[in-house]
Amino acid sequence: MKKIILALAAMSIVFASCVKNDPYEEPKGSDLVGKLFLNEVNGTGGPSQLDSEKYVELYNKTDAPINLKDFVLDYGGKETWKGHAEDVVPAKGFKLIKGSKTTYPGMSQGLSSRNANVNLTLLDATGAIVDYYEKVEDLNGKPLEQMSHMRIPDGGAKWYYVALSSQSPGATNLSDPNHPDVKGQMPPMEKVFTVEVESIVPALPTPDNDVTITVRVTDVNPISSVMLKWKKAGTDQPDVNITNTKDGNNYTATITKQADGTVVDWTIEATNSKNAKASASGTITFSVIAPADYTKIKLNEVSGVGNDEDKFYELINTGTEPINLAGCKIYYNANGSNGGTIPTGDGNLTWTGSSTHVIQAGQLLSLIGRNAEGSFTTGLTAARILIITLKDPEDIVIDQCIRAEDTAPYDFTDKSFSRIPDGTGHFYFTTPTPNVMNGANAAGLTLVPTTQVPRIDYTKLVLNEVNGFEKWFEIYNTGTEAINLEGVTAHYSNSEPVSWNTTNTWTGTASDVIPAGGWFSTMGTTLGTGLSANNVNVRLQLRAPDGTVLDTYEKLKNINTGQGYDHLTNKAHARIPDGTGPWYYTADGVGTSGATNGTSTTGCVKFGEEDGSATVDYTQLVLNEIDGNSKAIELYNKGTVAIPLTDVTLWKNADASAWWTGTSVSGSIAPGAYVLIYQTGQRPGGNVDGLIGASGISAGQTLRFELKAPDSSSLGVFERGGPTWSQSISSVAPNSFQRIPNGTGEWKQAAPTNGAANAASGTDIPNT
Question: Which one of 206, 271, 648, 661 has the fewest beta carbons within 10 angstroms of its own beta carbon?
Fold first, then answer.
């Protein structure tokens, strides 16, 4: 919410004879007070503390649904969410507004449980207040910050701090305030009755200006009147009704231009339905003033180091004349977590200048301490990506301080951002120096990046060759950019179940660079654990510096012991072709360290075919049933021999990568048997390795799945829907889509037969 310092020595407002206003209209209180509630607030999120895990929960206490079209969630005086026609809170039910900025319904500002003075107001479509939430104390650094805040019981009068283990997004809250997960009662939440100035335009009027003042009146109770009480040259003048602008909370009045030197002292007083009063006051003067050259004002240093009282913004006047900063503004926008991207938009208005803020030519002016008189109001961080924007009274951008990186080597948390030289140079990471010139020497300092450093796409790295008798492995870069392997790791396992070696077998260094389309071999490098060409259950896993798994090599058979594969001893293991092909025991046991594996598989033995078994007839493997209700896809073997699923793939729609890829742990399908592959998180009884795909199986949307053999040849396609398809999901459920007759027929719609022969008959699928 915009807050303007009202101790103004040179500001003006209204005269009785010149105030333009309409007849006063009394606003109505929302008839949903006591029926629709802000019920739970979680600004911490889940284990990852992501915005997408944060939420505001609404609860409908009535027996009828409530449509939220044009309802607004106000966060600190700014609209952060607005309801659509499809946003409905069911009777005795819940509605979540997510903390994510990228997915609707999501908030446009980051939600925080850590900071003090967090307030949310729910307004109905008319702008009347429905409910209010506020956390007035700062618990930063204390155990209670990792909490959900909830009413107990649902829609109850009291709020409580509750451990995250009992958070209940979209479900009923705890009912007992003595539950062990309840860590304490929050202070009472009652919407503070306030009158706050939204804007005075212009801030420094001349005798040629009309002046418009807009105030924001907020209260949980209906407002019965808003009056202007004012004095001219110390003499009381008649009171004037201030007009409601019909947008819920704002009231305006216009002052026509006045003679040079005219001074008005004013108070705007609001009275609510309980006869309580709130007011704001100020003074404004019409005077002839020289226009200021605001382009001479620069952000000179910004510091989020230390406690709130230590943080500061430092401005500098690079011109030759004093400049009054009345009406100038500073906006703050920062990411809520490290490693993100540069935020968009101005963010929060954190400071508005008053006529007492004057910078002399060539001098500094510092705003020290959050919420200090005349200072900034929004929390300021030293740890994260941010944009600070300085604007003149006409909202024209004067200057910006941008920090575009907050991870190594820019992960400073104890540095301010200082212009060197003062007022003209770039920003550098420095020790904070409020109200002290930064000088001209930037030697040895780190430049604050204003653009994002290109990210390394480690996903282009794959394991390409493993040599267990010479003890080396090779990485291949499938991308178009060189990749520095510093921090990339390889991990080894030779056990079942898998137990990755706790010590990396290899870690890349700054000198390990792999060119685009090139190879990197560890030949000649000492590995932390020995590789094996012969043993059973040998695995090697490649990981990015942040621990993300990039690729896994698996050899799950013992060449020498009990399986008669002596002819494969001392063979290198390689992908053919490089980077994309399946794994083979190569014809040349020496391998091709740091060079291409080629495309020929003559004399090679493919993993899984060590016993010399006949070529698999994958044409007998069919896509047999799609069940969008239980989220399962059924494969069927209509042949007479088992078919391994290794490297068989399922592709959804036009996605660039496979929805599911079979591995050696996916097993085989026996003749006449079925295998069900479930959408992630949907398999009854939990995950089963090798039989879980991605997400996106739907019973009611346009959908396409294609089954492919390991050589990428198509084994069949299911496709339904098209540009004109509009059948609702209710007309499909609980049917699935299946081949009728089983394994060979056309696709029809029938009751699900997962894991068994399909139905004898079915109905056509519209627009298939």
Answer: 206
Whether 64 and 177 map to the same domain: the answer is: yes
**Whether residues 365 and 489 fall in one domain:** no
Residue type, 330: I
Rounded Cα–Cα distance for residues 489 and 545 (Å): 7
* C-alpha–C-alpha distance, residues 696 and 542, integer Å: 28
pLDDT tens for each residue of 144-175: 667 889 999 999 988 998 988 899 999 999 99
pLDDT for position 614: 45
Residue 278's CATH number: 2.60.40.10
Read off the CATH number of the domain in which 710 is found.
2.60.40.1260
Q: Which two tokens stand for residue 405?
A: 């990186």
What are 564's two structure tokens? 């008669």
Report residue 647 CA to chain centroid gap.
34
418 lies in the same domain as 536:
no
Inside any domain, residue 132: no
Is 30 part of any domain?
no
The residue written with tokens 């090679």 in the block is 604
Is the Cβ–Cβ distance between 311 and 303 less than 8 Å?
yes
767 and 644 Cβ atoms separated by less than 8 Å:
no
Distance between CA atoms of 11 and 320, rounded to whole angstroms?
25
Strand partners, 42: 55
Q: Please report the pLDDT score of residue 410 as a whole number.
A: 93
250 three-state secondary structure: strand
User: Counting beta carbons within 10 angstroms of the beta carbon of residue 47, is it exposed (0 to 12), middle (13 to 18) or buried (19 or more)?
Assistant: exposed
Res. 642: pLDDT tops 90: no
pLDDT of residue 91: 96
Q: Between residues 454 and 470, which one has the greater pLDDT? A: 470
How far apart CA 531 and CA 551 sit, in angstroms, is: 17
Distance, CA of 762 to CA of 750 (rounded, Å)? 5
Are 181 and 49 found together in one domain? yes
User: 30 near 124, Cβ under 8 Å?
Assistant: yes
CA–CA dist 423, 315 (Å, integer): 8
Based on the domain organization, do 40 and 180 belong to the same domain? yes
Q: Measuring CA to CA, which residue among 672, 660, 739 is closest to residue 706? A: 660
Token pair for residue 193?
């009755």
| Range of 269-283, 388-402, 648-662 with top mean pLDDT | 388-402
Q: Which domain holds residue 549?
A: 458-606
Share of the chain above pLDDT 70, in %: 84
**Quick check: is 69 in a domain?**
yes
Nearest-angstrom CA–CA distance, 218 and 196:
9
Query: Quick one: tokens of 43?
Result: 């600004």
Contact residues for 475 (Cβ-Cβ < 8 A; gap 6+): 461, 462, 463, 464, 485, 488, 514, 519, 520, 521, 542
Confidence of residue 498 (pLDDT cuts 50, 70, 90): confident
End-to-end Cα, the chain, rounded Å? 53
**Is residue 518's pLDDT more than 90?**
yes
pLDDT tens sequence across 313-362 = 999 999 998 898 989 999 999 988 888 888 888 999 999 998 778 898 99
Instruction: Give how many domains the chain has, as a whole number.
Output: 5
Is the model's pLDDT at 21 over the cut of 70?
Answer: no
Listed residues 285, 317, 351: the one ending a domain: 285
Domain boundary among 393, 411, 430: 430
In this structure, are 425 and 485 located in the same domain? no
Q: How far is Cα of residue 597 from the mean position of the Cα atoms in its chain? A: 42
Indicate if 178 and 203 belong to the same structural domain. Answer: no
196 Cβ neighbours under 8 A, 6+ residues apart: 1, 2, 3, 215, 216, 218, 280
Nearest alpha-carbon partner for 633 in 695, 687, 689, 721:
695
Q: Tell me the β-bridge partners of 489.
A: 507, 543
45 and 166 inside one domain = yes
Determine contact, residues 754/625, Cβ cutoff 8 Å. Answer: yes
Quick check: is 672 in a domain? Answer: yes
pTM of the model: 0.36
CA distance 228 to 15: 10
